[in-house]
Design goal:
- This protein folds into two domains: 148 residues, Lyase, Ornithine Decarboxylase, Chain A, domain 1; 202 residues, Alanine racemase (TIM Barrel), CATH 3.20.20.
- It has twelve helices and 18 strands.
- The strands form three sheets. Strands 1, 12, 13, 14, 15, 16, 17 and 18 form an eight-stranded mixed β-sheet that branches.
C-alpha cells in the first residue's frame, strides 16, 4: 500500500518520535472512538515542509498559494506566516484574505472572467494583478483602472495532467496576435503573461514548452511597447496519489533551466495549491450501507461527490486505507445522497469483508476535498481536525 507523509508522522508521534510504525489498527481505533461525521485530519507541519521545499527548489519564483485548494482560516494563517502569497478567483476569497490581514497588493486574481463589479471591489481593496484571456476582459480591466496590472493568460499544453484546464481557460494561439494588436492600437495596458499546465501535472515538458512560449510572447509584446513585469507559471505541481508522479526536484530543474532565458527584470510567480496542502491531510469516512444490485456490490459512504470527493469521481483518485485484511474485490463506491450523480467510483478494489460502520481513509486529500464539501440533501459539511 502507498503510505502518506501525514500518517508516517502520526505513527512517529504515537511511538514517541521513534521511526518504527505502529500497526494501522491503533490509528483506526483512536479515530473510530470519536468519529461523528466525515473529517479531514490536517498536519500543519507538512504544509510548512512543502512551502519550504517549494522555496528551496524554485528560489527565484514567488509562490502564491491557490486559496481554492483549501481556504480554511487556520491554513490561511499558516501560509501567511510562512511568507507565501495568495492566488484567488473571487471577491469572497479576497475578503477572506482581508479578514486575515493579508497584504492584498501582492494577491493574484487569476480567474480570467470576472464581473465589472468584482474587479472594482477587489481593486479598491488593494488587488493589482488580474488575469484575462480575451479582449473583452482586458477592456473591462483597463476601464476599472489604469493602475491595474492585467496579466495575459495563454493556452499551453496540458498533456499528462489529470485535470486539464485548456477548454475553458487561456487564449488560443489563433487569438493571441489579434488580442495584443488590438490592445496596442487601443492603448490598453498589459503587464505580464500567465498560464496553467493543468492540475496534477505529471509531465514536466508542459512547463518547458509553456515557459518558452511565454518568453517569446513577452519579447514580442515588449517590441510593441508594453511594459511587462510579470510571468506567472501557474500551478499543477503534483503530489503522490495512485499514479506515479515526477519528483518536485525534477520539475523544478526543468523550470529553472527555462527561466534562465529571462534577462529582463521580470517578477516570476507560481500558484501551488494541491502541492502545498494535499499531503497534509486525509479524509476519514464511514461505510453506511452495503448492497448487491444486479450482481454488483455497492458500498455507500457518508461522504461522496457532493461532500468532497468530486475529483475522485472524475478519475483523480486518492489512495484508500482500510483496517480490514484479506481478499479484495471490485465494488461500486457511492456517496450518501439520493442523486444518481453521487457515484465516487464505478469500479474500485476494496476489502471483501468490509462492513457497515467500518472507516475508509482517503489519503493525501488535504486539497480540493473540504473545499468542495456542501450541504446538499442536508448532509453535513466536512469536519476539520488539526493534529
Amino acid at each position: 500500500m502507498n503510505q502518506s507523509l501525514l500518517l508516517d508522522k502520526i505513527y512517529a508521534k504515537e511511538k514517541n518520535n521513534k521511526i518504527e510504525r505502529l500497526k494501522y489498527k491503533n490509528l483506526y481505533d483512536r479515530i473510530r472512538r470519536n468519529y461523528d461525521k466525515p473529517t479531514l485530519f490536517v498536519d500543519l507541519s507538512i504544509v510548512e515542509d512543502r512551502c519550504n521545499e517549494f522555496k528551496k527548489y524554485l528560489p527565484n519564483v514567488k509562490p502564491l498559494y491557490a486559496l481554492k485548494a483549501n481556504p480554511h482560516p487556520v491554513i490561511v494563517k499558516k501560509i501567511k506566516d510562512l511568507n507565501v502569497g495568495f492566488e484567488v478567483a473571487s471577491v469572497s476569497e479576497v475578503s477572506l484574505l482581508e479578514e486575515n490581514l493579508v497584504d492584498l497588493s501582492s494577491v493574484f486574481f487569476s480567474n480570467p472572467v470576472k464581473s465589472f463589479q468584482a474587479i472594482d471591489i477587489a481593486h479598491k481593496k488593494g488587488v493589482k494583478f488580474f488575469a484575462f484571456d480575451s479582449i473583452e476582459e482586458l477592456i473591462k480591466l483597463n476601464k476599472v483602472s489604469k493602475n491595474i496590472k492585467p496579466i495575459f493568460r495563454i493556452d499551453v499544453p496540458n498533456l499528462g495532467s489529470d485535470w486539464p484546464l485548456t477548454e475553458k481557460f487561456g487564449a488560443y494561439e489563433s487569438d493571441i496576435n489579434k488580442i495584443i494588436n488590438l490592445a496596442s492600437s487601443n492603448n490598453l495596458n498589459i503587464s505580464g503573461v500567465t498560464f496553467h499546465v493543468g492540475s496534477q501535472c505529471r509531465n514536466p515538458e508542459n512547463w518547458k514548452i509553456a515557459i518558452k512560449k511565454s518568453i517569446s510572447l513577452i519579447n514580442k509584446m515588449k517590441k510593441l511597447g508594453f511594459d511587462l513585469s510579470v510571468l506567472n507559471i501557474g500551478g499543477g505541481f503534483p503530489i503522490p496519489l495512485t499514479k506515479p508522479v515526477p519528483l518536485f526536484s525534477s520539475i523544478s530543474e526543468a523550470i529553472n533551466e527555462e527561466l534562465k532565458a529571462i534577462k529582463e527584470n521580470i517578477n516570476i510567480f507560481a500558484e501551488p495549491g494541491r502541492y502545498l496542502v494535499g499531503e497534509s491531510g486525509f479524509l476519514a469516512t464511514e461505510v453506511i450501507g452495503i448492497s448487491v444490485r444486479n450482481k454488483k456490490k455497492w458500498v455507500y459512504l457518508d461522504a461522496g461527490v457532493f461532500n468532497g470527493l468530486i475529483e475522485f469521481s472524475q478519475g483523480l483518485n486518492y489512495p484508500i486505507y482500510s483496517n480490514k485484511k484479506g481478499d479484495f474485490e471490485p465494488v461500486i463506491l457511492a456517496g450518501p445522497t439520493c442523486d444518481s450523480v453521487d457515484i465516487i467510483s464505478k469500479e474500485i478494489q476494496l476489502p471483501s469483508n468490509l462492513a457497515e460502520g467500518d472507516l475508509l481513509f482517503f489519503i493525501n486529500a488535504g486539497a480540493y476535498t473540504s473545499a468542495y464539501s456542501s450541504n446538499f440533501n442536508g448532509f453535513p459539511l466536512t469536519n476539520f481536525e488539526f493534529i
